[in-house]
Design a protein that fits this description.
The protein is built from seven helices and eleven strands. With about 220 residues, it is an alpha/beta fold. It has one domain: Spore Coat Polysaccharide Biosynthesis Protein SpsA, Chain A (Alpha-Beta Complex). The strands form three sheets. The chain has a seven-stranded mixed β-sheet with strand order 5-4-1-6-10-7-11, with helices on both faces. Strands 2-3 form a two-stranded antiparallel ribbon. A two-stranded antiparallel sheet has the order 8-9. The radius of gyration is 17 Å and the shape is globular. The structure holds cytidine-5'-triphosphate (CTP) and ligand LQXTBERG. The ligand C[C@](O)(CO)[C@H](O)COP(=O)(O)O binds next to β10. One of its GO terms (biological process) is isopentenyl diphosphate biosynthetic process, methylerythritol 4-phosphate pathway. Belongs to the IspD/TarI cytidylyltransferase family. IspD subfamily. Its EC number is 2.7.7.60.
């Protein structure tokens, strides 16, 4: 059985809405509810912890906890609220900002962790753009065209063996603040991380155009 941590405590500054991003209405419901539906539909998930903005009540059947200053601080708070568990227990972390996640994506990530000896498995999609490294003195000068075949755009869900995630989240606050995902901290602390393929549709709502796209895709599903 697995524990799921849904992080929904971000401010959403790049979206520029009136309130926290996870509470923004998307295809008729607060954004975080779409991810909760997907997590609740997976039989292997026995507990869901939600990191929320201060003062927001926990959704029914979940454990609520106040989020931290940065994303990985919220993951740390959620893991603490989940209570103790065995070292090899799968702990799944998902962003409420990825409302297009499906039960199938979640199950594929959990199964992939069980099938490997890795410390973590992250949902990801092969990169389809050509990526150039820019900078090196002249801010706009192209330095390199990166070999695309080795590049994957990483998403959530990210599934960890509990001990590896706990070790990563025990790093100092500034290490957590600098990380854009938890798997990156696992890598820095000597852990092994694999990818499992996931559709590009599992996009992250960051800016207003993402919100419009997510609404269109969710309305298509309903
Ligand atoms: N202190 C934080 C920051 C982020 N998150 C969550 O982490 C996910 C990914 O974060 P991001 O999309 O960067 O959200 P925000 O931090 O809200 O966005 P911004 O950087 O534009 O303010 C989101 O589900 C967000 O709610 C969180 O729980 N706690
Ligand atoms: C964790 C994440 O969703 C992986 O793509 C992403 O890095 C978090 O978003 P942020 O905007 O970089 O905080």
């Amino acid at each position: 059985m697995a524990v799921a941590l849904l992080v929904a405590a971000g401010r959403g500054e790049r979206l520029g809405a009136d309130g926290p991003k996870a509470l923004v209405m998307l295809a008729g419901r607060p954004m975080y509810e779409w991810s909760l539906d997907a997590l609740r539909a997976v039989a292997a998930i026995e507990r869901i912890v939600v990191a929320l903005p201060d003062g927001v009540a926990a959704p029914a059947g979940t454990i609520g906890v106040a989020g931290g200053a940065e994303r990985s601080h919220s993951v740390r708070a959620a893991l603490a609220a989940a209570g103790p568990g065995p070292d090899d227990e799968p702990v799944l972390v998902h962003d409420a900002a990825r409302p297009l996640v499906t039960p199938q994506i979640v199950v594929r990530a959990l199964d992939a962790l069980a099938a490997t000896g890795a410390d973590a498995v992250v949902a990801a999609a092969p990169v389809t753009d050509t990526i150039k490294r820019v900078g090196d003195g002249d801010a706009l000068r192209v330095v390199e065209t990166v070999q695309r075949s080795a590049l994957w755009a990483v998403q959530t869900p990210q599934v960890f063996r509990r001990a590896a995630l706990a070790r990563a989240l025990a790093e100092p606050d500034h290490v957590l603040a600098a990380a854009t995902d938890d798997a990156g901290i696992v890598e820095q602390t000597g852990g092994t991380v694999h990818v499992v393929e996931s559709p590009r549709e599992n996009l992250k709502v960051t800016t207003p155009i993402d919100l419009r796209l997510a609404a269109l895709l969710l309305e298509e599903r309903c």
